Amino acid sequence: MQAQSEAIGTRPIQPVVEENQPARAQRSRPHVTSFRQWNSQLDDALSRLPESDACPHELFRILATNSIDNRKLIALVRERDAPVAIVALRRTPDGCWVPVTRYIVPGFVLPSQPGRLLDAVASVGVTVELGFWRLEKEPQSHGAVRALWSEPTFGMDATDDFEAYWRKTGRWDAIRKSRRKCSGFSVGINQPGAARLIVKEWGKTWGIDGAEIADRVAAAEYMEATGRLVSILLSDGDRRVGGVTCLIHENDLVAQVYFRDHEYDRFDIGTYLIYLTFEMVGRFNLRGIDLGGGHDYKQRFAPVKGVKHEMRICGNIMRYQFGRAVRKLRRVTNINRPAE
After folding, report:
1. pLDDT at residue 90 greater than cutoff 80
2. What is the pLDDT of residue 36?
3. How far apart are the first and last CA of the chain?
4. How many CB atoms within 10 Å of residue 259?
5. What share of the chain is helix, strand, coil (3-state, %, to 5)?
6. What whole-number distance in Å separates Cα of residue 152 and Cα of residue 303?
7. Where are the CATH 3.40.630.30 domain residues in the chain?
8. What is the pLDDT of residue 327?
9. What are phi and psi of 107, to 5 degrees?
10. What pLDDT is recorded for position 233?
11. Is the model's pLDDT at 221 over the cut of 70?
């Protein structure tokens, strides 16, 4: 019988320090141990790391162990036998490594000691794309950061005049029409099993990788069980025609995933779902709404309210440069490939 846990590599990694950093500020070498499966050693380390309200240890463990295969990496980073962080990554279809929490859990990246997140991620030695979303502070600088960019996020407070803003941006008429067109649909709030259905339909619609869908479903069901998820499901009789999941984070309603049946596009279900999302702010007595970023259309429903940061980090410069060269070669090959 295969052992429940198996370490696949233990290695000391030279920490990356910024240029001109005083020698006294340099820390000792972190040790990185990679595992194929979760085990008691990781449980012990996790219990010794700070726990986040946004992502309790139980939820992080679920995401780290969900559908473990060769596309997930769990690394324990230690320094003088004390845990610095647990880095749990998922490999995307295009070969990128991302934290298992990325844009699934707001306000959290990975369990780590204060100020040591980037040290830990850099020590793993692979190129990782981090997302800093709904965090109080901007990401720290670090010598292993290879790229850093940001974009606005959109939202409103519950005390803002939603209708006045929609009139200003020209969306009010479209919202009124969508409400009229969709008036014959039933609206289910937090129905059992709705979150799973909505996430899977969203993934199917947009061609999302199955591993990410599995992690999103696991997180949604955990949040649903702890009262931190709001789902909206539209039905035309027995047919599910649209839905949205949102998380409650720091008393804000944070939009997650939307899906709509494109055979019902004439009803403008997408606009109606966004309207219903705003309605949930008052229904659940929340502070405000966060639509996130990434798409310009969101500014027609809410003004800029925040910012999210993206970072590409790798502590192994040779591996990073090699990976860049491979990606560039793939792009050139795809461009020059004759159409079939």
Report:
1. yes
2. 84
3. 47
4. 26
5. 35, 30, 35
6. 10
7. 153-307
8. 60
9. 75, 20
10. 98
11. yes
Q: Assign 5 a pLDDT band (cuts: 50, 70, 90).
A: very low
Measure the CA–CA gap between 72 and 92, rounded to whole angstroms: 9
Phi–psi pair at 33, nearest 5 degrees: -120, 125
- Nearest Cα neighbor of 32 from 259, 315, 302 is 315
% of the chain residues with pLDDT over 70: 84
Amino acid letter at 30?
Answer: P
Please state at what angle helix 210-225 crosses helix 194-206, rounded to 10 degrees: 160
Q: Are 97 and 315 in contact (CB under 8 A)?
A: no
- Asked if residues 260 and 209 have their Cβ atoms less than 8 Å apart, the reply is no
Contact indicator for 138, 309 with CB cutoff of 8 Å:
yes
Strands 252-260 and 288-293: parallel
* Location of structure tokens 């039905």: 235
Token code pair at residue 72 = 């997930």
pLDDT tens for 257-298 read 999 999 999 999 999 999 999 999 999 999 999 999 988 899
Provide the 3-class DSSP secondary structure of residue 108: coil
The answer to whether 303 touches 166, Cβ cutoff 8 Å, is no
CATH number of 153-307: 3.40.630.30
